[in-house]
Amino acid sequence: MLWLAIHCPRLALDLWRDEAEAPRAVVDGERPPRVRHANAAARGFGVKRGMSVAAAYALCGALVVRPYDPAPVREALEGLALHLGRYTPTLCLDVARDTLLLEVSGSLRLFGGLAKLRSALREDLRGLAYAYRIGGAPTPEGAMLLASGVVEERKSEMGNGKSEQRRGALPERLESRSAPSPFPISDFRFPDRASLIATDIASAWKLLATASVAKLPLAPEQREQLMRVGLRTLGEIARLPRDALARRCGAALVDWLDRVRGAKPDPRAAYQPPEAFARKIELFAPVEGVDALVFGVRRLVGELAGWLSLRGGGAQRLVLVLAHEHRPASEVPLALARASRDGAHLFALLRERLEHVRLPAPVSALTIRLDAWQRTRADSRALFADPAQEAENAATLIERLRARLGDDAVGGIAVNGEHRPGLAQSTTALPAASVGAVVSHRSAAASAAAGAKRVRQGCRTDEPQGWRREPSRSPGSSLPALAARPAWLLRVPQPLHEQQGRPQYRGALTFISGPERIESGWWDDDDQRRDYFLAENPQGQRLWIFRTREDACWYLHGLFG
């Protein structure tokens, strides 16, 4: 097994969004209360973690304190779990230690190895407004220790800012900043320490044995007791006799050591995503422009994609809610032609929608609510091409067009039981849930009928010449039977000029097949008496043209792809 721990060392402070750059500190509930986190301004006055509040006030009289609240910390870790749900279905939260655990041994092959998985993970974390460290080990407790920074860097190991290569250990610099706007947080900077990923027990213990006792997640009285007898590192504690250590410090310490080294199982409750998805982000300050909302939308979409991955489903219909102060919220709906959990695709669609939104007032909060979703098949790498891939590509194109042009601007073609070409097809709206299905709409057919009315001005009445099929054309060059009707029909047929008895369209046309006589529509005052031909111009473009029987005028009615 390989566990990765994402440790947010100042999560409670990062969630404290305050426009003022004043000295701030988060204090715990101990008696007396002590500093849990301090921002850079407070640390500049000498305020440190573990310091009593009275001492902190003595150093900085303008210090602003806030009690530690685990509820928003849990909510933030749950959002982080959803954001990283695509990496593994096994996630565990440790709210007390501000850490998220991921078991990734089964995901290494999918991401192309540990190095590529780590790069993708860092790229996703870069967009979050939290300072973080990454640590990895075969045991969850070992991973959390490495991520928490208990292992001190040694100058001999950190020459020129780089760790020596160790067998089974991957040294890594900790990410400490991300682009905050429009979600600035108090302080992204913290000491640039090494974050290590150890892939086997021996390498992990070699690193953890150097951990300082003063930084171990033990009770304060246990740390004082161990340090009182001269123990300074975790390795020195492990070398003591187990029975003597249990009598002096309790059996819980021995059990904890066994879990760190993998000698005992470390069962942890896996994170279970909620039944429904609705996530909200409070903005640091009201936002007046749509472009400034992209950061928050990307973050919420990342959580949505993780939730869908954990649920094994795809989104069908969702709503982006823009909250305003003293005004009703604005909603940006999004319906998908095909269920999807691709975060990049969902973000692109929402971004297209936002470009056409006019904000009635500044936005104070963002919410994404998933209204409909469905189970989807798992992605797999097949030997042969997936027959559904073409439909997926078509769905993606339709969704992008609907997001950019509007829901009513994209339609499909329905086939009607009509002999008249102008009424044989109609444009219909595509339903959001399906690409292939179309709904027949009679008004669209009527509109097409009106557009297909004959245009009689400027027509010649002399007989056409050159009606014979081109003798040099081979039989294989004729169009197949299924292509006798073009997919692209002009709403209003275009009159064609004649020259030397032959219709012209970017040159003289050559007839391929025809005539095909159509006489229909006398019962509804839309009588059509036409002879249709398949023709080709000098550029090789194939056309569908007709000649009216009353006045022998030529018209262009359709084009072949």
Number of spatially distinct domains: 4
Q: What structural class should be given to the helix and strand makeup?
A: alpha+beta
For the CA atoms, what is the radius of gyration?
35 Å
| Main beta sheet strand tally, sense and closure | 5 strands, antiparallel
Report the average pLDDT across residues: 77
Helix content: 25-40%
What is the 3D form? elongated
Characterization of the model:
By secondary structure, this protein is of the alpha+beta class. The protein folds into 4 domains: 3-22 and 62-69 and 102-261, no CATH class; 278-404, Dna Ligase, domain 1, CATH 3.30.1490.100; 410-451, no CATH class; 475-559, no CATH class. It is built from 17 helices and 22 strands. It has helices spanning 11-14, 40-44, 53-59, 70-83, 108-111, 114-126, 140-147, 201-208, 220-228, 234-238, 242-249, 251-261, 294-311, 343-354, 389-405, 421-424, 442-451; strands at 3-7, 24-27, 35-38, 64-67, 91-94, 99-103, 133-137, 169-173, 194-198, 278-287, 313-324, 327-340, 363-375, 411-415, 425-429, 488-495, 497-499, 502-504, 510-520, 528-536, 542-548, 554-559. The strands form 7 sheets. It has a 5-stranded antiparallel sheet, with no helix packed on it. The chain has a 4-stranded antiparallel sheet with strand order 5-6-1-7. The chain is elongated and about 115 Å long. The relative contact order is 0.07.
